[in-house]
Design brief:
Blueprint lengths: L2 H34 L1 H12 L2 H32 L5 H38 L7
Helix pairs in contact: 2-3, 3-4
């Protein structure tokens, strides 16, 4: 096996390793969401309303809120060093978490709106043309 063969083998090993890492991260993320009840409550809501779009909307909203809370808390702590207005450290996390949850919910609703509009536009464009006559 020459140098090009070794390089190809190294590239394949790196790509397989990256794929395994990404797969493990996705499994851990799915397990965390299932543990928190996000997936099951979204599925249950979809079955109750008999509309998959409602389940997707609930999943987006819950994931947006869960991702927004720590993001908001970290942003508030970073903002504290710039502004120096709030003295109590635990209040920074509370205000940041509330702000992050609100921002996450707004982002989830915005994404849902974009997905629904795009779906309606694609559905309209893909309708078969009927001949008049």
């Amino acid at each position: 096996m020459g140098i090009p063969g070794l390089i190809m083998l190294l590239v394949m090993v790196v790509l397989v390793g990256a794929g395994i890492g990404i797969g493990l991260f996705a499994c851990a993320l799915a397990a965390g969401l299932a543990m928190l009840g996000v997936v099951s409550s979204s599925v249950a809501l979809g079955f109750l309303t008999k509309r998959p779009a409602t389940a997707v909307r609930a999943l987006l909203l819950q994931c947006g809120i869960l991702a927004g809370i720590p993001a908001g808390a970290v942003t508030a702590w970073v903002g504290r060093t710039v502004l120096e207005h709030v003295d109590e450290s635990w209040m920074i996390a509370v205000y940041g978490g509330i702000g992050g949850a609100f921002a996450g919910a707004m982002l989830a609703l915005l994404l849902d709106f974009i997905f629904r509009r795009t779906h309606a536009w694609v559905e309209q464009r893909m309708k078969p043309k009927t001949l008049v006559g």
